[in-house]
Write a structure and sequence with these properties.
alpha/beta; 18% strand
């Protein structure tokens, strides 16, 4: 499924990047060094983290996108940098666990 397919079904808002990338899995985590060692390429990474460091982690792990859960907000400077680096970021009102469950279900991983 593409990011767009999932985001439309789960009422996510695209704030940066390309929503045509494929999503092959889902990963949740807020401890950045842990995410770097456990997220897989193609994952939709769900987090409440919203600072510039998430962009470095996304680049290192090659996740398909970052979802900022619980509408925890994101600074315009992070959005601008994400656009430059071609990193897709979405926001969502739902909590992390709910998003992960629903994405896993959509991907047929449950």
């Amino acid at each position: 499924m593409t990011i767009k397919d999932i985001s439309e079904k789960l009422n996510m808002k695209l704030v940066a990047g390309d929503d045509t990338k494929e999503v092959t899995g889902v990963y949740a985590g807020d401890f950045l060094s842990w995410v770097m060692s456990h997220a897989c390429p193609g994952d939709m990474w769900v987090t409440v983290m919203n600072n510039i460091n998430i962009l470095a982690v996304a680049t290192l792990t090659d996740v398909s996108c970052i979802v900022i859960s619980e509408d925890s907000g994101i600074d315009e400077s992070v959005i601008e940098r994400a656009e430059i680096q071609d990193i897709t970021i979405l926001t969502c009102e739902s909590g992390t666990a709910e998003i992960v469950y629903k994405v896993a279900d959509l991907l047929g991983k449950i």
